[in-house]
Amino acid sequence: MFKEFKEFAMKGNVMDMAIGIILGAAFGKIVASFVNDILMPPIGMALGGMNFADLGKVLQEAQGETAAVIMKYGAFIQTIIDFLIIAGTIFVVVKMMNNAKKKEAEAEPAPETKECPKCISEISIKATKCAHCASDV
Q1: With contact defined as beta carbons under 8 Å apart, do 133 and 121 qualify?
Q2: Which CATH class is domain 2-106?
Q3: What is the domain partition of the chain in residue ranges?
Q4: Going by C-beta distance under 8 Å and a sequence separation of 6 or more, which residues neighbour residue 129?
Q5: Is beta strand 57-60 parallel, antiparallel or unpaired with respect to 69-71?
Q6: What is the pLDDT along the chain (137 residues), one digit of tens a residue?
Q7: Which of 2, 20, 53, 90 shows the smallest number of beta carbons within 10 Å?
Q8: What are phi and psi for residue 128, nearest 5 degrees?
């Protein structure tokens, strides 16, 4: 069982997927930092000095040692902006990959040979008679 798992884990697709997940997580952290530390402070300043992370609606005030219940819609707005940046980036990357695959598929040369339907020999694509069995193709 361990041998089968090792073979599965070492396949190219599994390793590529693992690398993609790790890079995606790192990219997500970079985007989150960009939004929280670079993008939102100037927007908050332009809107009167507000900090989006602090925006929220108090649903229940703090009572004794129980913390207040707050619906933090500011943090949610920042998370939506994170998502939109990541989704947009992934869309552009996938679109570029699909365009590259299309160009690669278009570049494939036309076949120069075909198979004779009678004797299954390989003959020129331009042939009208099979050189091996003399049947019409």
Answers
A1: yes
A2: mainly alpha
A3: 2-106, 109-137
A4: 135, 136, 137
A5: antiparallel
A6: 888 877 777 776 777 888 889 998 999 999 999 998 898 889 888 888 888 888 899 999 999 999 999 999 988 988 999 999 999 998 998 899 888 888 877 777 778 888 888 888 888 888 888 888 888 87
A7: 2
A8: -110, -15
